[in-house]
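Q: I have 380 residues here and want to know how they pack in 3D. Can you give me a structure?
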Amino acid sequence: MKYLYLALLLAVLSSCRRNKFAEISGTATGFTSGTLIIKDQDGHIKFSGNIEDGKFDFHLTVDTIGYYTMRIIKISAMQNRIPGYDIYLEPGTYTIAAEPETARRYPAITSSSETQTELSQYYAIANTQNAAVAKGLQQYSDAINDKSSSTDDIAKARNLRDSLLNQQEKNKIRALATYVGQYPQSKVAAHILSQLDYESNADDCYPIYQKFTDEQKKTADGIEEGDKLNGLKKLAPGNVAPQLAGVTIDGKPFDPQMVKGKITLVEFWTADNELSRDVHSKLLHDSFSPLKTYQNFTVVSVSLDTDPKVWKNAVSSGGLTWINISDLKGDDSPNEKNWQATKIPSYILVDGDWKIIKRNIGFNVLSEELQDYMDKNKIK
């Protein structure tokens, strides 16, 4: 009996060991040699293995079940900075058919993991919708990295690449909408949304989020997405902009009546942010600055600093002539939450009645957005 018990115990322990392994095998078309790297959500490398003659076969110990990032890299392209692939690891089997990393396509992954299978279903849709974009991105990336390219050619290629990257993000969001429509009970929808720039595309992402199951909305990702998207919904074009907490340089509370009738750029910044200071300089000194071009345009700068001396010195040394306010609460300021100012600097355009025109506007397209708005509304 004693020996039987010992044999059963060894069998159980052996089974536990086996059950911690993920068996990952597959092919990487076009690879002579390369590396497969898997990182956790904090960016720490958890596994690295060699690809030889376009084939690989690994056994990974999965200490923590969850989402990871996988990269499949050619030795000749080790410096390539294409983002990795989203993968869900748990004990089981994974068969991967990958194209060269430069193809920018999510690899075909067949797995015993139901969660990974759902991820693969989404990325198959995204691959289809981004097929043309992927080719264009590779073309412009090659031009940027070509040592024979002129400075002007590189600059043009970067602009075209950035435009395509924006289109790629839009296509991924459309793919998620299609995916949720096809698989309404998906258990990975909230995670997928967390990988997308849903804050900058709130108008498109909020309807998708509303279709999530209650289970998905209660996940850590779902809760965060719900909070942010509900906040961003209040900043939709046409809605009255939130109040601004704090006082001006001379100690007066801000009142939207101070800018009544003017198109206003509401800026969120900090004194130590170099990009903010660069924008201030352009607003003040560029020949085609909106401040010089449009008489019905002004700026309200909202500081997220905490030290009054630092804030006031930055306003003074920068020669900022427009309204400056702060509640000196830094990241704890209600302004940051109410206006969803999640990055510095952030810009939101409001009209003469303190209603949202557009949020998360890029300063580089501000003049274009202003001209478009003024033409539509016949404002000089």
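Q: Anything worth noting?
A: Residues 12-18 have pLDDT under 50 and may be disordered. The domain at 21-104 is CATH 2.60.40.10 (Immunoglobulin-like).
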